[in-house]
Amino acid sequence: MDAAAAAAAAKRVQIEKAHNFMRQYRDPESRELKKLSANQFMDVWAHYDKDGNGYIEGTELDGFLREFVSSANATDISPEAVTDTMLEELKSCFMEAYDDNQDGKIDIRELAQLLPMEENFLLLFRFDNPLESSVEFMKIWREYDTDNSGYIEADELKNFLRDLLKEAKKINDVSEDKLIEYTDTMLQVFDANKDGRLQLSEMAKLLPVKENFLCRQVFKGATKLTKEDIEKVFSLYDRDNSGTIENEELKGFLKDLLELVKKDDYDAQDLAAFEETILRGVGYEKHGKISRKELTMILLTLAKLSPDDEQ
Question: What is the pTM of this model?
Answer without folding.
Answer: 0.79
